[in-house]
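As a next step, the fold was encoded as tokens, giving this record:
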Amino acid sequence: MLATRTWGAVGYRSVIIEQAVPGTGPARQTEGTGQDVASSTGDAPEGAGRLGFTSGQVVQEFGYDDDVDNDLRAGLEGITGTELVDEDYDDVVDGVVIWFRDEDGDLADTLMDAMTVLDDGGQMWVLTPKPGRDGHVGHDDIEEAATTAGLHATSTFSIAGDWSATRLGSRGRGR
């Protein structure tokens, strides 16, 4: 076995890669629990695993439309083991994914709506079209809306072919 440590979207974790014994199948990657986990090479389609959700979590989706990345959605559902819930869901959720385009209205309002059911410590992600794509939203616009909603952008990266992901976090006390 080969042990490695990686730093990812959810923090520091240890990963053990078990080398395959000839005739026993492929190598697999495990964490401390011994369960298979998505590798950084894409076992979760287009990086859905990078959003940090885990099995059993309820994730609410805002801004669903025909242009969303269905592979990313399927990857999120595969990781959590549950279907994404829509904007009308009114119980507490563990995380929120907001598909947002330039023409979708006021992002700050959408963020505040999303926060009404988000559990303390829950994750919030804003997915926007990449630069050069129709509906692109600039990082400054996301940061301004986040500030208005009492949040701030903590990281942004490419998540799918046409989409970028920006993680939002709450501002600490005194800010």
User: Anything to note?
Assistant: The chain is about 15% helix and 35% strand. The two ends are 47 Å apart (CA to CA).
